[in-house]
From TrEMBL, chains A, B:
Entry similarity comment: Belongs to the isocitrate and isopropylmalate dehydrogenases family. LeuB type 1 subfamily.
Cofactors named for this entry: Mg(2+); Mn(2+)
Name of the protein in question: 3-isopropylmalate dehydrogenase
Cofactor, free-text remark: Binds 1 Mg(2+) or Mn(2+) ion per subunit.
Keyword set includes Plastid: no
Organism: Methylobacterium terricola
This protein's encoding gene: leuB
Amino acid sequence: MATHKILLLPGDGIGPEVAAEVSKVLAWFTRAGIAQFETETDLVGGAAIDAHGVPLSEAAMDRAKAADAVLFGAVGGPKWAGVGYAKRPEAGLLRLRKDLGLFANLRPAICYPALAEASALKRELVEGLDIVIVRELTGGVYFGEPKEIVTLEDGQKRAVDTQVYTTGEIERIAAVAFDLARKRRNKVASAEKHNVMKTGVLWKETVTRLHAEQYADVGLEHVLADNCAMQLVRNPKQYDVLVTDNLFGDILSDVAAMLTGSLGMLPSASLGAVENGTRRALYEPVHGSAPDIAGQNLANPIAMIGSLAMALRYSFGLLEAADQLESAITRTLASGTRTRDIAGPGTNAVGTTEMGDAIVREL
Amino acid sequence: MATHKILLLPGDGIGPEVAAEVSKVLAWFTRAGIAQFETETDLVGGAAIDAHGVPLSEAAMDRAKAADAVLFGAVGGPKWAGVGYAKRPEAGLLRLRKDLGLFANLRPAICYPALAEASALKRELVEGLDIVIVRELTGGVYFGEPKEIVTLEDGQKRAVDTQVYTTGEIERIAAVAFDLARKRRNKVASAEKHNVMKTGVLWKETVTRLHAEQYADVGLEHVLADNCAMQLVRNPKQYDVLVTDNLFGDILSDVAAMLTGSLGMLPSASLGAVENGTRRALYEPVHGSAPDIAGQNLANPIAMIGSLAMALRYSFGLLEAADQLESAITRTLASGTRTRDIAGPGTNAVGTTEMGDAIVREL
Ligand SMILES: CC(C)[C@H](C(=O)O)[C@@H](O)C(=O)O
Ligand SMILES: CC(C)[C@H](C(=O)O)[C@@H](O)C(=O)O
């Protein structure tokens, strides 16, 4: 039986709590003789700053490169508000994305039927919602240079960020979206601001050309990012796969996630290019470090456990195990087990560890 | 009686239809002896491209500079999709904003009680919603240089947009937000991405300093733009005044507008600096040119008529007339008159002209 190398980076806030539940699930798969994992754990974000003075040590970066998949919790919190830009907790995550070449971020926004009531939107607008945001993750304004603050002669400061995209960067993320759409409802919407941004002009032009040349069988629609944000609120079910750049993807995927009422349940995958039949990958919950509820056994571990299910499927080729884990999650929810974030008024809520235990029991 | 100089720029799509209703209202105020207007009309956007080959003629720009206020409809549509970046319809609007120095865009998001049902959100989340997004309008990625597409040696293209902010630009828009908050519920939320963008770092630092020095009596909260988009969906009533940059403002204000269920009802004001007691200003509906319903007498003219009410108040000092117009709108709605966009199922909808006539009747 092949051994799958996992680097677990719990991070900050509720990260360690939800990561602990993932470890339980990994242990179960090993005990059951279904798969074998070699799991290393390291620090990232604020935890790494406290220990090493940097948000990701070189040793952790090397381990990430050597792993078949990285499982990432969450980073950041008020404790590290003053550490300075280069050393902030988020820099650890951004370095992982960039140095592992994880250009494709897949963020499903699924409204679980049992939770449709938890959405801010009217039930009929979100019930059955199942869209995937494909976000470009290693380009755009996140990494473009110059990126600086300079002091001018009159004492004023001037800050600059640079959004850059090349044809090749746009093509490869669009291809991910089109390929994914073919396995789903065969529709892609591409969001940019070509009416204001040159990167938007190139984005639209490149997606249009790639579509005509290689994906003419897939439905394609172009939508302005501001209008897309509106449409996500007005009628999210009109979309299937939504492809967009790094910054718009950051915002639009958060809107989409929040719509589902299932923020604590949504996993995500960040994938690199396929090389020699494998690809680098990092899996993380869509939610953040939630410092306000950290350490209180209140966090919902489902997004993190669902991220493991994605790793089983996309990185380890363990399709059956992935299905098995996802249906254990579904059965646990169907049995009425709820953490606080998804418990309706008057329902009993369980804690993080109880939810993890319940899922293992269902396995 | 002073004569107020207005430049009316109806633009494209439904722009001319809603602008026509504003002309009716202006005529009523003149007939009633309440105010005197000198109204010029000119072309902008696609209409100007068709007539002059550019989205805003020099003559129209000069008229805008000479006017006390510009009333703007909407621009753009599929007809001009191929005209090229420099000449696209939106360039006319962007030039007006930049050359008139309209750095402060005020976008109220109000949920009219009668329309709470029209929101995609659950009634209790939006009923009574009254927030204002203060969007920086002449800086950021909209205007920063370089902004270009270059062809690389290998035939690939590389597109660049540049987001730039100076201390002074941030201070003046933050001051608008704090001043406005003092007349409202005294709370400002400032949205940026300081965890990823240097402009976000300078934004947060500058807002924090200005607050400490001059507005310590106003409540201030910093929120990441992606989280802010989420919070707008989760619980929009937590906000009072929300200040943010040009690009985030574009998206967040569209989300906020859509939440209200009243998109066709929301006016906006774009204001310049006060010089010699006056300030340049442009008023426009938040909605766009809606080419799909143009020319069919279906558009809701209330956002445009409400924009005139803002002009009466902020540019002409006609506070009573502004109140009068706004209460005429409220009474018209209370009487059950509805255009299609806000008509509930089973309700009779009136057209654009009928809604305009009804408001004039209420005056
Ligand atoms: C933590 C932060 C740097 C990150 C981002 O902006 O990409 C987060 O918001 C996300 O969406 O993964
Ligand atoms: C028409 C377009 C250039 C404009 C913008 O992006 O600012 C519009 O979306 C707006 O919000 O006023």
